[in-house]
Amino acid sequence: MEQQFIQQLAQYGFSTHEIEMILLVAQPLELPTRHILVEQGETSDAFYFVLEGLCHACYLTDSGKQFSKEFYWENDWIIGFESLIKSSASPFLLETLTPVSLYSLPMSTVNEWRTQRHPIYMRLLEAQFLHKEYKERFMLLYTPEERYRFFCQHFPELKERINDYHIAAYLGVTQVSLSRIKSRDHSDN
User: Fold this and answer.
1) Mean of per-residue pLDDT scores for the chain
2) Torsion from C-alpha of 161, 166, 167, 171, nearest 10 degrees
3) Most exposed among 49, 78, 167, 188, judged by the fewest C-beta atoms under 10 Å?
4) CA-to-CA distance for 52 and 6, rounded, in angstroms?
């Protein structure tokens, strides 16, 4: 597990010294399906790197609705930057959707990197900003039908691993709308 983590860190552009620093504080975890990593409204004491499996972050409303924030799978970082920067509780729930192998790193470590403006923190921040830019463009510039097609083309492995409820929530549509989109898409092909 450690070797896979080291390889992924190297691919992210971390130096040998930076990788050694990360390994000093990283803790490997094997978690079951439906394990809560962070409760909405609670403070997280860790951030994560996913080696295998699938995690889901979502917002829960007082009326019981759930809105998908993001899915995280192999080689993804999971960092609650809002909580980190504002020293506040997590605005979302984070759970595993499948059995997961990941590394947990103390939030205090990333906070130190932040304070020092360490290159590791800057790399993580840049990766997160790029991802958010892509997601924003995805949600704003494409119709629900286009988002579904894009999702199917670019994330076919993810499509097979999650149910329609989660796909619909990720695309920002209802399950009924997703069913209609899939039906139209199927009849067009």
Assistant:
1) 90
2) -150
3) 188
4) 14
